[in-house]
Design goal:
Blueprint: H1 2-25, E1 45-46, E2 49-50, E3 63-74, E4 82-88, E5 92-98, E6 105-111, E7 117-120, E8 131-135, E9 140-144, E10 152-157, E11 163-168, E12 175-179, E13 184-188, E14 193-197, E15 203-208, E16 216-217, E17 221-222, E18 226-232, E19 237-243, E20 248-254, E21 259-266, E22 269-275, E23 279-289
Parallel strand pairs: 3-20
Antiparallel strand pairs: 1-2, 3-23, 4-5, 5-6, 6-7, 8-9, 9-10, 10-11, 12-13, 13-14, 14-15, 16-18, 17-18, 18-19, 19-20, 21-22, 22-23
């Protein structure tokens, strides 16, 4: 009988030891449990500012990407169903909706904090209304007509959404961004140019963009360090990033199928506006991706 219990105790002890070893080898808290094609997400936004200075340290299968969170949608208005330029003053978001013929448009104003509707402008002529930026120095919206009216900007009062005047500029603009720290504008046309204007819309410098990704040019945005170009593709979008000296920096893959239209940076956060049954407004975190190839652009 003693031998029976001794053998039983030995088997029990052996099973217990094996279970401990197995448990340690499959510790869910260990980073080794992460699938081989996934790593911890590393945000490159610090203190409300993106930092792409480590781009040369990315591995062969690493690239910059974005995690997007939809906040709300700016509604269409009657027959004005095509969403175009958007911007924000940090409190409100302004979005353009136009008709198919580019002859009528409105600017809608929504509260950024909760997406509630605030006001809508009278119908006005903004051309294609391809992009829009907020000029904090003069409390006005500046609309880039784009398309065949690329050298026309329309100024709109940010409080009342009333038309102020049209401005004729020297270079074509289908995209525009104002930077308060530098008190200047940057504009672009067709994804090929990069022009710098002073606060009086006078041309300071012109460059030819060096990137070529096969995506459709949309609007643009900026922070104090970088200039961003949202560009749309068949399966996703990208942000093409330049510095303020006009040098290409990198790209950010946006795994969203909706058509990007505009981009802005306010309150230390990055937003992209899309054209999809209205104008969805999405907040974005830029992270280091770890699957796919950073140079593999979808057709």
């Amino acid at each position: 009988m003693r031998d029976f219990f001794s053998k039983k105790w030995f088997l029990f002890s052996l099973i217990f030891l094996l279970s401990v070893v197995t448990s340690c080898g499959n510790d869910n808290s260990s980073s080794n449990n992460i699938p081989p094609d996934k790593t911890d997400k590393i945000s490159i936004i610090k203190d409300g500012k993106a930092d792409f200075s480590k781009k040369d340290d990315l591995g062969d299968n690493q690239f910059y990407t974005a995690e997007s969170k939809k906040l709300f949608t700016i509604s269409k208005y009657e027959n004005l169903v095509h969403s175009q330029g958007a911007c924000s003053d940090g409190t409100y978001v302004y979005g353009i909706a136009k008709n198919a013929e580019d002859t009528e448009a409105v600017i809608s104003k929504y509260l950024l904090a909760d997406g509630s509707f605030v006001a809508r402008s009278e119908v006005m002529k903004l051309g294609h209304g391809n992009d829009m930026t907020f000029d904090s120095k003069n409390n006005r919206l500046v609309v880039a007509h784009g398309q065949t009216e690329g050298k026309i900007l329309t100024l709109v009062d940010a409080d009342t959404l009333a038309f102020i005047e049209d401005i004729n500029i020297e270079a074509g603009a289908g995209a525009i961004s104002y930077n308060a720290q530098r008190d200047c504008y940057v504009i672009s046309q067709g994804g090929k140019t990069l022009h710098f204007l002073n606060s009086n819309f006078e041309l300071i410098n012109s460059l030819t963009r060096s990137d070529s990704f096969g995506y459709t040019a949309q609007g643009m945005g900026s922070d104090n360090k970088y200039i961003y170009f949202p560009m749309s593709g068949y399966n996703d979008n990208i942000l093409v990033v330049y510095d303020w000296e006009g040098n290409y920096v990198t790209k950010v893959v946006i795994p969203v199928k909706m058509e990007s239209e505009s981009m802005f940076w306010v309150n230390g956060k990055y937003y992209i506006a899309y054209n999809s049954n209205g104008m969805p407004i999405c907040e974005n975190d830029f992270i280091i991706g770890d699957t796919g190839n950073k140079d593999n652009d979808p057709v």
